[in-house]
């Protein structure tokens, strides 16, 4: 335990030091360029972020963007998990879905955004794009996890006539846990990028994306950097929260499984 705490403290110091180095490099680059219309120093960006955070419109835009990203991620996660299970069970369905998944992976996000804008209202496009972007990631990870399930355990479960619920709880879920963790982390990060990009192109209102578009239109570079920083901070925050919830759920699951065994 002591070794773990010491290692955590070392890593924390390393991350803080690395962040400070990047901030110094950012400041030096701003001094070298010396054109605030092109590149702004970190101090001015943080100042602009604090100024924006004192307005109602800032939090309103963030709230609506968060709702769209999380809604799209949630729908995409459920949808991708369902089709992954079907692809695992039925070879024909897997063969049918795989080209579509490959096409989604290969097609530029901007193309999907423009096409979706022609089909749906601009407020729905960011949600649709998030669903589209997260689907291949979750589908791939869940399907791979299902394929990695120990066949010997499944044979044993069949011999002992284990119920479907018990097999899901004691065999499938433990195997799928690391694959789900990877899918959630990668998928949510991509949702933030694609969702905000969709808001910028569609000028969805209110939203972070529209606010970024307005800073570009009015050439308010410090605020553009500030909104971008806000997106980065939100992405990191939600990633940390999801990982924390995931760890707690895993801990509770292991405790429950252990008590059931006893």
Task: Give your account of this protein's structure.
The chain is mainly alpha-helical. The chain contains 10 helices and no strands. It has helices at residues 2-33, 42-53, 56-89, 91-106, 109-119, 125-147, 151-159, 164-202, 208-217, 221-261. The longest helix has 41 residues, at 221-261.
Derived structural class: mainly alpha
* Radius of gyration, in angstroms, nearest whole number: 23 Å
Show unreliable segments. Answer: 1-8
Beta-strand content: under 5%
Counting H and I runs of at least 4 residues, what is the number of helices? 10
Q: What multimeric state do the chains show?
A: single chain
Topology readout:
Blueprint: H1 2-33, H2 42-53, H3 56-89, H4 91-106, H5 109-119, H6 125-147, H7 151-159, H8 164-202, H9 208-217, H10 221-261
Helix pairs in contact: 2-10, 3-4, 3-6, 3-8, 4-6, 5-6, 5-8, 6-8, 8-9, 8-10, 9-10
Quick recap:
This protein has 262 residues and is mostly helical.
Key terms:
single chain; 262 residues; mainly alpha; 10 helices; globular; disordered N terminus
């Amino acid at each position: 335990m002591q070794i773990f705490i010491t290692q955590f403290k070392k890593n924390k110091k390393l991350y803080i030091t690395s962040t400070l180095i990047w901030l110094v490099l950012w400041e030096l680059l701003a001094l070298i360029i010396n054109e605030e219309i092109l590149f702004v120093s970190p101090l001015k960006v943080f100042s602009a972020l604090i100024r924006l955070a004192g307005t109602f419109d800032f939090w309103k835009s963030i709230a609506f963007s968060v709702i769209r990203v999380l809604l799209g991620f949630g729908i995409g996660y459920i949808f991708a998990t369902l089709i992954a299970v079907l692809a695992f069970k039925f070879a024909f369905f897997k063969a049918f879905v795989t080209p579509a998944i490959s096409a989604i992976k290969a097609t530029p996000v901007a193309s999907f955004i423009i096409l979706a804008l022609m089909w749906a209202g601009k407020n729905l496009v960011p949600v649709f794009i998030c669903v589209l972007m997260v689907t291949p990631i979750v589908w791939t990870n869940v399907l791979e996890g299902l394929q990695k399930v120990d066949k010997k355990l499944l044979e044993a479960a069949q011999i002992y006539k284990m119920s479907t619920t018990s097999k899901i709880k004691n065999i499938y879920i433990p195997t799928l846990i690391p694959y789900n963790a990877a899918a959630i982390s990668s998928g949510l990060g991509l949702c933030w990028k694609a969702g905000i990009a969709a808001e910028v192109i569609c000028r969805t209102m209110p939203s972070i994306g529209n606010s970024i578009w307005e800073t570009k239109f009015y050439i308010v570079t410090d605020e553009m950097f500030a909104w971008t920083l806000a997106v980065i901070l939100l992405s990191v925050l939600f990633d940390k929260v999801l990982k924390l919830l995931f760890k707690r759920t895993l801990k509770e699951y292991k405790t429950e499984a252990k008590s059931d065994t006893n």
